[in-house]
Every structure is written in C-alpha cells, then in structure tokens.
Write a structure and sequence with these properties.
Blueprint lengths: L2 H13 L3 E12 L2 E13 L5 E11 L2 E11 L9 H4 L12 H17 L1 E5 L3 E7 L5 H18 L4 H7 L2 E11 L5 E13 L5 E12 L2 H6 L1
Helix pairs in contact: 4-5
C-alpha cells in the first residue's frame, strides 16, 4: 500500500469539495468525571464562505457548572473563502525568518509522522489511517507535546481548563482517519490521555476524546 499515493488522493479529493458538513463531538474527563462536553453541528460553503453552526456545550470545572447553546449563520471574509480550511492543514505560518535548523526540524517532524502512519484496510473498502504517539521517536514525542502545549497556552491563557491541558505530562494519544473508497474523509477520531500535577502536588488523570463525522454531499441532499 502506497502511503504517499493514498494521502495525495485524499488531499486532492477533499480539496475539490465545495461544501463541508459534519458534526464535531468532544469530551474531556478528569479523574473519570466529565468536565467538558461539546457538540458542534456545522455546515460551510467553501465557495461563498457562508457558514452555519449549532453548538451545544457543558462545562463542569472547579465547582462551577455552565451550559451553552448557540446557533449562528455568518459569511466568511472574502479573502478566507476558497478552501481556507484545507490550506491551514499543511502550511506553517511564521512571522520571522526561519533558520536552516528550524526548517530541517519541521521536515524531520513531518517525515517522522509519515513513517509512523499505519494503513489498514477494513470491510467495505474502508481505509483507516492511524497515528499512535507511542510509535514516534522520543525526540519527536517531546516536540509533539511541546507544540500541543504551546497551542493550548496561546489559545486562552486565562482559562483554568486550558492551563491544565497545557500542563499535561506523559501525553499519549492516537489519531484515526477513516477513508471511504472514493478517497473521502468520513470520520476522524482522536483520543488523548495523560496526567497532571496541581498546585498541591496531587496527580490527576486527564482523558480527551474527539470525533469528527463528515457528511457526504449526496447524503446531505437525500436528507
């Protein structure tokens, strides 16, 4: 099975899409208790940039319980309409000149990910592309963890839950992408687990599960 060829076909197929519609579900647990639950039903026209979302979320953290429900339909800025979602998947933005060492570090990281990818054929001609953090070299595990922590801190430094996520030690995770015979992404599943020390040096177990289900255009029309 040619890894690069399959990835190339998937990227080309998804790039040709004019609409993306699906459901994102996220659940975060701390010491086996759910502290965050989120569901986002979304639909975006990649030609016009128009996007519809229906978000339901609940947060139970530090003795505070909050719920949220919102529906929104808004246009996207013109400069960010056509396939912008795919563009950001494979570009590394930078506001400074990158040195040669940094360039090779990024390429080494990308090649390590490619080498660690596992491809499995299942019933119905479904191909599952998976990446297990345990299959990465130790230096790549460290770099991967640093990038996740950096992204979490940059997202919102004020929120306690974000700070906890960014301070996870010994992060372990798995990514699974389900591809149909037409080289379309049907589902993406991410699981992550780790432990975290609080200010009193007490250890807590954190787990996160996320699932993205994409609805095909013909299925959307039929419904």
């Amino acid at each position: 099975m040619n890894k690069i060829r399959i990835l190339y076909d998937v990227m080309n197929t998804m790039k040709a899409k004019t609409e993306v519609k699906g459901v994102l579900q996220v659940q975060v647990e701390k010491d086996q208790a759910t502290i965050l639950s989120l569901q986002n039903e979304f639909e975006k026209n990649l030609l016009t940039g128009k996007m519809k979302t229906k978000v339901t979320a609940s947060l139970d953290y530090e003795g505070k319980t909050q719920g949220h429900h919102a529906e929104d339909a808004a246009p996207c800025p013109p400069e960010r309409t056509h396939h912008d979602w795919l563009h950001h998947m494979h570009h590394f933005p930078s506001h400074r000149r990158r040195g040669l060492k940094e360039i090779f570090t990024k390429w080494t990281f990308a090649l390590s990910l490619l080498n660690a990818l596992q491809f499995e054929e299942r019933a119905g001609k479904i191909t599952v592309i998976s990446l297990n953090a345990n299959d990465l070299p130790e230096d790549m595990k460290k770099l991967f963890s640093e990038r996740i922590n950096h992204a979490s801190r940059r997202h919102d430094r004020r929120h306690g839950l974000i700070r906890e996520i960014s301070s996870i030690d010994h992060l372990d995770g798995k990514l699974s992408i389900f591809i149909n015979p037409d080289y379309e992404v049907e589902k993406v599943v991410v699981t992550a687990a780790g432990n975290q020390l609080d200010a009193q040096a007490q250890q807590h177990d954190l787990k996160a599960n996320a699932q993205l289900i994409l609805i095909r255009e013909d299925e959307s029309d039929a419904s």
